[in-house]
């Protein structure tokens, strides 16, 4: 029994969840559009409620009152016709109807009244109100046609010897000033929406400026930002400025410390080199020189990885020129290389850092491949650089491991290879500091493809 009750109760919840998911998928995603919807929806609902109340109350009351007045006029004409049956009186009655009552009166031969209209009239409220009021005032059979023309309605009353046909202006029986009401509603809605749009745009602009500043800072570019807008937005902006100051101070302190470490290590390595230069040439000294040179390269690589290039300023950088330089270097090594460029090759970045990034990737391709291919594509949103080689490649399951610092795919520590295991790690660190990334895939040449994506 409890399971049945649970199933019955879960059905409405599931239906509501499906409706909520459907509504969420169709709701605007931007803050500006959502805030504007919050303003528009109440206005539309309020105006609709006012229109409903006005239509159902005010117009109904006014239509019944005007229809009652028309019914009294019709009843008066019928009474006069019955009281004065001679032709002279009829002529006078037509004149009174035209001049005083503003309606057209005509006498038709005695004939049955038309059948009631089966089709619902356009002005159903008028048809209903006028029928009720005529039923109260007249004892004779009558027939009305509220759809006679755009500005008039027709009333026929069956008398003993004739049929009275009256054409009455619609405005006499129906409140026809609806266009004024709807025009007022439309103008008021437009004014409210214009004011709301203007205020919302001013409130959204500081948020967009903050988002743009955060994005630029994430790309490693210089950002000049001052908080503006509402109190909450200014608080978020002030928090961003303080975070930016702390990050820059931490980078500056790290750079200063590593510069000192670099100087001390270079001093010791220089002493080793000097001591080896003063020693007598022998097999041992030759091996020691190789070790010292390898130590120097490793120290430089470690310090470069730890230090990064945070102190460099972002400027317009020509990626094509860097690739052409790397292509020439590859050809000097006796390896084949091609370059393909599509779109504008200029991107805002730190030139030395980008050159180091691409040099590390090209150096990795030179180490394992004999033929290289470089391509550069600017799609309007991102700068995409492909570096392909015909080497052995990297298995899919180990491609992410290749970006780990000090990770070697051959799992060896052969110092003669000159590989410290930091090249790809440094390259990805530089790419991500610019707001981009590096991915590895299979190359059309059969080896490895390194793809660099940088935001424009």
From TrEMBL:
Q: What is this protein called?
A: histidine kinase
Q: Where does it mainly reside?
A: membrane
Q: What is the lineage of its organism?
A: Bacteria, Pseudomonadati, Pseudomonadota, Alphaproteobacteria, Hyphomicrobiales
Ranges where the Histidine kinase domain occurs: 260-456
Which SMART domains does this chain map to?
A: HATPase_c, HisKA
Q: Which residues form the HAMP domain?
A: 201-252
Which reaction does this enzyme catalyse, per its entry? ATP + protein L-histidine = ADP + protein N-phospho-L-histidine
* EC top class, as a word: transferase
Asked if the Swiss-Prot or TrEMBL record annotates the protein with the keyword ATP-binding, the reply is: yes
Task: Supply the alphabetized keyword list.
Answer: ATP-binding, Cell inner membrane, Cell membrane, Kinase, Membrane, Nucleotide-binding, Phosphoprotein, Transferase, Transmembrane, Transmembrane helix, Two-component regulatory system
Provide the protein's localization.
Cell inner membrane
Q: How does it sit in the membrane?
A: Multi-pass membrane protein
What PROSITE patterns is this protein classified in? Answer: HAMP, HIS_KIN
Q: E.C. number, please?
A: 2.7.13.3
Matching entries from InterPro entries are given as: 2C_sensor_his_kinase (IPR050980), HAMP_dom (IPR003660), HATPase_C_sf (IPR036890), HATPase_dom (IPR003594), His_kinase_dom (IPR005467), HisK_dim/P_dom (IPR003661), HisK_dim/P_sf (IPR036097), Sig_transdc_His_kin-like_C (IPR004358)
| Source organism | Methylocystis iwaonis
**MF terms per GO, please?**
kinase activity
The question of whether Repeat is a record keyword is answered with no
Where do the TM regions start and end? Answer: 31-55, 179-200
């Amino acid at each position: 029994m409890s399971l049945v009750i649970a199933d019955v109760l879960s059905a409405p919840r599931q239906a509501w969840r499906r409706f909520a998911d459907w509504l969420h998928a169709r709701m605007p995603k931007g803050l500006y559009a959502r805030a504007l919807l919050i303003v528009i929806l109440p206005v539309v609902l309020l105006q609709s409620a006012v229109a409903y109340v006005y239509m159902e109350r005010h117009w109904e009351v006014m239509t019944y009152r005007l229809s009652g007045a028309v019914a009294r006029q019709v009843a008066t004409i019928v009474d006069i016709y019955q009281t004065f049956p001679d032709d002279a009186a009829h002529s006078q009655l037509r004149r009174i109807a035209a001049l005083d009552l503003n309606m057209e009166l005509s006498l038709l031969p005695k004939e049955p009244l038309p059948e009631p209209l089966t089709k619902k009239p356009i002005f159903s409220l008028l048809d209903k109100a006028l029928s009720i009021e005529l039923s109260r005032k007249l004892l004779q059979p009558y027939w009305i046609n509220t759809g006679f023309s755009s500005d008039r309605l027709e009333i026929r009353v069956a008398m003993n010897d004739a049929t009275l046909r009256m054409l009455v202006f619609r405005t006499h029986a129906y409140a026809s000033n609806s266009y004024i009401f709807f025009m007022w509603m439309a103008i008021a809605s437009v004014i409210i929406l214009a004011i709301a749009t203007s205020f919302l745009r001013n409130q959204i602009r500081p948020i967009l400026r903050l988002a743009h500043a955060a994005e630029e800072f994430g790309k490693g570019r210089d950002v000049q930002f001052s908080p503006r807008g509402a109190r909450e937005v200014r608080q978020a902006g002030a928090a961003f400025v303080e975070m930016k100051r702390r990050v820059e101070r931490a980078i500056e302190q790290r750079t200063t410390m590593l510069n000192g470490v670099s100087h001390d290590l270079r001093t010791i390595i220089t002493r080793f080199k000097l001591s080896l230069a003063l020693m007598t040439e022998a097999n041992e000294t030759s091996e020691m020189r190789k070790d010292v040179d390898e130590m120097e390269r490793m120290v430089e690589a470690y310090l470069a990885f730890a230090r990064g290039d945070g102190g460099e300023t972002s400027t317009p950088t020509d990626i094509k020129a860097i690739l052409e330089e790397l292509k020439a270097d590859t050809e000097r090594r006796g390896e084949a290389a091609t370059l393909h460029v599509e779109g504008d090759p200029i991107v805002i970045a730190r030139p030395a850092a980008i050159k180091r990034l691409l040099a590390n990737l090209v150096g990795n391709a030179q180490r394992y491949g004999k033929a290289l291919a470089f391509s550069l594509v600017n799609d309007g949103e991102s700068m995409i650089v492909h570096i392909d080689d015909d080497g052995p490649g990297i298995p899919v399951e180990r491609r992410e491991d290749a970006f780990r610092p000090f990770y070697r795919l051959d799992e060896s520590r052969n110092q003669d290879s000159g590989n410290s295991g930091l090249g790809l790690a440094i390259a990805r660190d530089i790419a991500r500091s610019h707001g981009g990334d590096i991915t590895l895939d299979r190359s059309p040449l059969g080896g490895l493809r390194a793809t660099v994506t940088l935001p424009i």
